[in-house]
Amino acid sequence: MEPSIFKFILKYSRREQVLLLLVTAASFPFLYFSLDLPKIIINEAIGGSDFPRALLGYELDQIPYLMVLCAFFLGLVFINGGFKYFVNVYRGVVAERMLRRLRHQLFNRVLRFPLARFRKQSEGEIVSMITAEAEPLGGFVGDSIALPAFQGGTLLTILVFMFVQEPLLGVAAITLYPLQAYFIPKLQRKVNALGKQRIVEVRKVSERIGEVVTGIQEVHAHDTSRLELADFSQRMGQIYGIRLKIYRLKFFIKFLNNFIDKLTPFFFFSIGGYLVIKGQLTFGALVAVLAAYKDISDPWKELLKYYQTKEDARIKYELLVENFEPAGMMEERMQADEPEEFPILSGELVATNLDLREEDEGDGRFVGGATFRFDLKQRVAILGKGASGKKRLAKLVAGVGRPLYGSVKIGDVTLTGSPQTVTGRRIAYVGQESRLRSGSLRDNLFYTLKHRPLRAVVYDEDVRQEQELRRVEAAMAGNSEHDINADWVDYAAAGVAGPNELNDRAVDILNMVDMDEDAYQLGLKGTIDPEKQPELAAQILQARKALRDRISDPDVAPLVELFDRDRYNSNMTIAENLLFGTPCDDRFQIENLSANDYVRKVLEDTGLMPQFIEIGRKLAALMVDLFADVEPGSELFEQYSFIRADDLPTFQSMLTHIEGVASEQLTPEDRSMLLSLPFKLIPARHRLSLVEAPLQARLLEARHAFAEGLGEHKGAIEFFDPERYSPAISIQDNILFGRLAYGKPRAAATVGMLISEIAEKLGLRRTVMQVGLDYQVGIAGSRLSPVQRQKIAIARAVLKRPDLLVIDEATAAMDGATQAKIMEALFREFKDRGLIWVLHRASLGSEFDHTLVLDDGKVVEQGRFTDLDKPNTVLKDLVMAG
Amino acid sequence: MDLLEEAEVLRKVPMFAKLEPSKLKLLAFTSEYQTFEDGEVLFHAGDPADCAFVIISGEVEILANTDAGDVVLGVLGDNQIFGELALLNKAPRSATLRAKNRLQVLRIKDEVFLKLVTENPDVALDLMHQLSDKLALSHQQVEALQSKLHRNGS
């Protein structure tokens, strides 16, 4: 990177800066004229005589003369303002482009850091450097040349003007400048040094907080909270001390500046006044000089401030850049340049004197590394103790990271010098803790196929133009011009023709890594749009019918209560029974029902209102009775109460004052409160005997009335219709089309099994799994279990069809049966390709063709597992150790 | 079955006998009413324990898994509570429980039960009685075994 911020500025924004300078220079004559004009107005137009006078070829009287000059003055105000506006906006543009470029460069470098770097530098530090610390530099870049030119030029123009009016006043205006120019930078340097110190201290504090937070159980386990607080307090004290010094210096500078600022007018009044009285200076000139002086202090202040920020930015830039130039960083072409052809990696893998020490441990003397060779067609196991170098070896043969010494060759290709554009496509590596990114399961699976945009998106014309503008702007800022919305998926690399086949292939591979059931379950909980997938929706409806037949079995029947428009469902809330569908927006959400005018009208029309109020009253009384003694923060409220803890006292007092009052005589407020309760009631769950057969019958009438009179609210409810797929509920709920019965513990498992059977029979399982691919995995895959994440990581490594797959203890967290299953499947899949597996259990080595045993960075034993598994071998020790 | 009847059932459980009516109702309200068919298993030995059960009607067999197959160690009946001790030390289930004939129970979740114990000394005391009875029993058994050993040794 450019060593100093000015080199960076000159290299990447020379043209913009020149433009800014030219525009700035063009503005000065106008500025000078706008200073001179007031003098003419006062001396000639207001104070002058011998009118009419000639102006621009016209003869003008005094008043028109004054007015024309004033109009000129106004015009100049506009012109000067216009220049300022243009320069400011353009400065902003330059600043933002350069900031964008700087961040892009930094991030590009992060992607090429040697991996060991990330053990020294925390994620948080890198984030804050690229975001927060880079931010002010952008602003400075915009100002760096234009601001001193503009403000300096302005200052100069005004000074020239003053000297022309009266040299003595000009001298008065600047006598104190040398003083300021000498002292203030000196003081400022001290402030800067302190500022730097403060940055370092704050970085330390954030590091400390991070450390304590991640190790919080240590604090709890050893009662060290006082210690941590004292440490924290001490650090905060240090920051306080630095800050205090900064404040003192900063405000002293301010004081000095203000003082000098006010001292100059003193000279003007005394010297200028004297000259005017003596008749050596016109009154108009003094007024103009005073007005000009008001304008002069701004540019001068700006210049001083510029000097401060310049120093600041210089230091910040250097501090920032030195963190992004670690030794051993990969060259950019290794990631950027597309090779002309992709070699197929096959034949023999030969490692010569390969240094297996971690990159940051390579300071000591190199005493020789690992040397080995094997045919890539063999299945190879790598064994060794934790620090034997086996993990480093796995990375190096996969082209992840580079050794300080030694080389790896496969066939004719030297991996150690190959760009990532080759290794990253021909080799796959899966480590122990794979990280996913937020997005769908599908996005994460296809991640390994997205190396560069392959098919452009066809945009509508207006969107296309916008997109093109964005691309041009990115190019101006030296950013990546690739369109993230394009189709990046390399179908050919996965050996398929297009998206549909790839989905199919993904499902096959999920089977391979034992993730099929998970994907199926996730798919069942997903939703689809029946208009986009009409065939799937039709199949699901078929499954619904099939399940309905199975549920008629008396053994299963009591476990489910199906949706039936003409029957009350006691496993649903009253609200659901009334709506008999899924609300599509807020209007009919359960908590809004009691306030909904239409719902109230239906209740009134069907005569249910008084009964609802009565049930509400009973429920309120019950809740107050049950929960009055429960403390407000208790989970019981959340889980069981119909009334929130905060509202309980209100209900309590209402119940006392409505005691004995008939429901028709209640106030509207009381009725509203009571009405909010019954909707949540589920008869089968709450067992309160409040919804008996006659009420159920009337609720059914209300359900029908509700649906028929919906009118303007049509579309707000997706009704349960046995003949239609409902996009508002999950696939599983669409198949079930009913509710599991409360109080039947085996219902979920039994019905789940039935659905599974039916899905299998109808050939739905694979399609449901594909729906499961839409599942959002959460930040860093947090909505999946660690084992699921590992399975996805293996699956996507397989998906890109590498010539060599390196597994680095990636299945260690899985149970034995799953591991065996995945291992077997991968053996089959990689029959003719390379497969290298770092094993966490040595005994698994017997499954492999060739075994390498590592110790202290060297290969100590190699050959067939059975040949090595003898007394007094390192392998034997490893097997015995488990 | 409704809430009041269930509260009545709970009141017949000795441990809960002294609870105020509103607390009994709350306990019933926060419990889940479940039914099991003949031969259905409530839980297996070794399962994690997350609830206690009170029998409303029907019977439950306590099974021990031996080499010779399942052996019935005992049978529980109306108004008996079971599975609650495992909640205290979060131990896995010590035996398998199976419904005999049609069974109705109230399932009390662990957090509700533990809250009940911490807030009601009577319930806690009853649990302590049970535990000390068990302790005394095993103490006796140990002593019996020791004296048997002693006799055999001398």
Would you give an account of this structure?
The complex is a heterodimer of chains A (882) and B (154). Chain A has 882 residues and is α/β, with parallel strands linked by helices. Among the domains of chain A are: 1-165, ABC transporter type 1, transmembrane domain (ABC transporter transmembrane region fold, Up-down Bundle), CATH 1.20.1560.10; 336-446 and 780-881, P-loop containing nucleotide triphosphate hydrolases (Rossmann fold, 3-Layer(aba) Sandwich), CATH 3.40.50.300; 584-712, no CATH class. Chain A is built from 35 helices and 18 strands. In chain A, the strands form 6 sheets. A 6-stranded mixed beta sheet of chain A has the order 8-15-16-5-17-18, with helices on both faces. In chain A, strands 4-3-6-7 form a 4-stranded antiparallel beta sheet, with helices on one face. Chain A has a two-stranded antiparallel sheet with strand order 1-2. In chain A, helix 23 packs across helix 26. Chain B is α+β, with helices and mostly antiparallel strands and 154 residues long. Chain B has one domain: Jelly Rolls (Sandwich). Chain B has helices at 3-11, 21-30, 85-88, 110-119, 121-153, and strands at 32-36, 41-43, 51-66, 69-76, 81-82, 96-109. The radius of gyration of chain B is 18 Å and the shape is globular. The chains are: A alpha/beta (882), B alpha+beta (154). Chains A and B meet through helix 23 and helix 24 of A and helix 2, strand 1 and helix 4 of B.
Query: In what range is the share of β-strand residues of chain B?
Result: 25-35%
**Span of the ends, CA to CA of chain A:** 50 Å
Q: Give the C-level CATH assignment of chain B.
A: Mainly Beta
Let me know the number of strands of chain A: 18
Strand order of the main beta sheet of chain A, please?
Answer: 8-15-16-5-17-18
Shape annotation of chain A: extended
Structure class of chain A: alpha/beta
The gyration radius over C-alpha positions of chain A equals: 39 Å
Overall mean confidence score, pLDDT of chain A: 89
Give the biggest sheet of chain A.
Answer: 6 strands, mixed
**H/E topology pattern of chain B:** HHEEEEEHEHH
Q: Indicate the low-confidence ranges of chain B by residue numbers.
A: none
SS-based structural class of chain B?
alpha+beta
Largest interface: A-B, 22 and 20 residues
Second CATH tier, the architecture of chain B: Sandwich
Q: Helicity of chain B, in percent?
A: 40-55%
CATH topology of one domain in chain A: Rossmann fold
Q: Main sheet of chain B?
A: 6 strands, antiparallel
Tally the helices of chain A.
35
